[in-house]
Design brief:
Order of helices and strands: EEHHH
Structural class: mainly alpha
Number of helices: 3
Largest sheet: 2 strands, antiparallel
Radius of gyration: 12 Å
Strand order of the largest sheet: 1-2
Distance between the termini: 22 Å
Length: 84
């Protein structure tokens, strides 16, 4: 993958659930970290880690379809499968 991976944020930024965003499950420090990552392969690995985090925490089934919509809009692709 050579193109930049879009941010996992889905524009629902409310930090509840022990400091995790109810939209994407990232903490504030994870959001800062994603912004600092420049290599697309590392950005993709971060999103993959986030998917695992969401599965462990539960209640993030809305994120996959919203992120896929964002990927389609930005004409971006990822190498892993998102649960829909």
């Amino acid at each position: 993958m050579s193109k930049k991976v879009p941010s996992p944020r889905i524009d629902v930024c409310k930090f509840r659930r022990e400091g995790h965003c109810i939209g994407c499950s990232m903490t504030k420090s994870q959001k800062k970290l994603f912004k600092s990552i420049k290599r697309p392969d590392q950005q993709e690995a971060f999103v993959q880690m986030l998917v695992c985090q969401q599965e462990k925490m539960g209640r993030y089934t809305h994120w996959g379809p919203a992120y896929l919509k964002k990927l389609k809009k930005k004409k971006a692709k990822v190498k892993f499968t998102l649960a829909v």
